[in-house]
Request: fold
Amino acid sequence: MSARDGQPLEVGGVAKAFGSRPALAGVSFRIAAGEIFGLLGPNGAGKTTLVRAIAGRVVPDAGTLTLFGLSPADSGARSVRGWVPQEIALYPLLSPRENLWTFGRYQGMDGEKLEAAIRSNLDWIGLADRADERTERLSGGMKRRLNIAAGTIHGPRLLLLDEPTVGVDPQSRERIYAMIGELKERGVSLLYTTHYMEEAERLCDRIAVIDHGRIIAEGTKDELVRQTLGAAQTVTIDAAGPIPEPVREAVRGLGGTVDGTRVQASVEDAAGRIRELLQVFHDNGVRIRDLNLKSATLEEVFLNLTGRELRE
Amino acid sequence: MIFAVFRTHLSRLRRDRAAFVLAFVVPIVFFSIFAGIFGGTRGGGTRRISLAVVDEDGSDNSRRFVAALKAEKGLSVATGRIPDGRTTESPFDRATAEAAVRAGNLPAALIIPKGFGQTPISFGGSGARPRLELLADSADPVAAPVVSGLLQGIAASAMPDVMAQTGVQELEKWGGGLTPEQRSKMEESIRFLRERSAAKGPSGGAAAGGLVDVQVKDILGQTKKNPTSALIAAGLGVMFLLFSASGAGGALIEEAESGTLDRVLSTNVSMTRLLLGKAAYLSAVAVAQLTVMFVWGEMFFGLELHRHLPGFLIMTVVTAVASSCFGLLLAAMARSRMQLVALSNLLILAMSALGGSMVPRYLLSETVQKMGLVTINAWAIDGFMKVFWRDEPVTHLWPQALVLLAASALLFAGARRLARRWDVA
Reply:
């Protein structure tokens, strides 16, 4: 089978233990072409072990792993796979240009094709003007971008991004998000591990929540919320003054709670319920200072699934 | 604060157990090695000087003299050699003895000339007497003076009768002759000395200087501009090559610690290719280092590099490859930079002491000299000495080249095997 056939990534029942400590306990999922698949979980959940297994650096004790139908150790798989490790895995004394040349050569590129790839990647990561400085002298964000380029220089069709924004300032993070968007536009399939739920929400088409080496939920963000928390949304109304008793009674009748000047209710039919609540406020002459409708977050999904915060 | 710094470093050392052990083991091992090498271990034996002897005289006295040389504990006398393809020994003649010295098989050869037996001894250099020739290789500057001294002592103790007879002849010549009775008593005394010496062998006692006339001929060093520079350049060069290769090999540990190694191995580069690439790089650096050192030696210390380029190139390349593979093996063996430093200090200094980088091997006991043959240093230095000292043709370098290349293959295989821990988890 050539690397052009098959799903970009298929993971079936993969298990791995280091000594007596299980790192992965039967993980299964698949990534479709051009999809950004998020792997969301706390530190130590097994994300990096899974990525290293897909990168061919960890051999699973059980289960199957295929990249476009090929085993991770297959030379064809090496060519279509790119890996951006969590660490800045670069040569600090080499320049960005030399680092890109090195990893391009290691991926079998040479000649004008390699030179052109180096030029376009330096432009892409915004380091063309610092291409010949020592990498160790670059800022953290620049190193992160170069780290990504070193994993994509050979034009992979499946990219493994292991927490690519760790320790990066917000501005650099935005730039990395833009790069990921461009990769998606090029049709690259991405496996994106993170423990930042806002990243997963923002970037990923589908998300798997991983904990203790197991995938405990999988789907789009909306699907995950619906699966675990239902379709309810939270409406919060802040009154401009004290809330009189008739309003309190009406809110409680609609299934909400009152705390000082704040009213909160979990609603499924948001439009209808909000209209009813606003009518009660209006009828009793209570002015509204703020109104907010909020859907459930992945943080809440994770809390609901595991009983603990994502960043614990 | 100072205590906190102290405690932090102590904890680091304790966590790296191998480095912790090496920190205490290295000094003990070094003490043992150096005490053994330079102090002479019990049962290790003191150094005996090998000496080829050619008896051109073949007289009764010259045979007695050779027998006395053989009995001398400080000498290891060879009167012949077993030629290639033969099983029986053929005696040395002047040419074969000189060739043996030139080839470095022996540090010196003694030629006993015709007529030696008639007047082997003379007092104060008086009278015409045959001159012993000591063909020496001054790469071993100790051998010739020691052998010369021993020859004087042996002449006195091995041939007391000859010495007495010579004394009588001197007395007759300058004292006006002896009466028949004096002559009879004197001959009886000389006979007694001869019989006693035959029965007991040489006593090894000191004799007056200059009893035998010895001429030392430096058959190798006389044409050299600076006889010791080749030995020093080869010895130090190899030692620093080993240090530099093990230091550079440490890049492997840094790559592993930074995650770069993992990333590289996920590409189309296999561990074997990676190690081969590193070995090639380390070898190229080592060749450049040795070249710079020898060019410097030529410019300022009379090392005749330009006259020995082919041999230099062969020995430099094989030594560089062996050192590089050694450096890779150490890097693959060590789990941390700290361990690598301790391990390389231990092994390289021990190898250098045994292998002749610190002091020439001829100064060491025979046992230690043999032990030195397990080191890269000894083979490399032997090869460089063949090139620069003995002016041997490059075809004579095959034993050194073969051993160093075989060692390289073994060291590389060892490094590859140890590097399996980085292959996949």
Q: What stands out?
A: The beta strands of chain B are 49-55, 75-78, 80-81, 90-91, 108-112, 132-136, 214-218. Residues 271-301 of chain B form the longest helix (31 residues). Confidence is low (pLDDT under 50) at residues 201-209 of chain B.
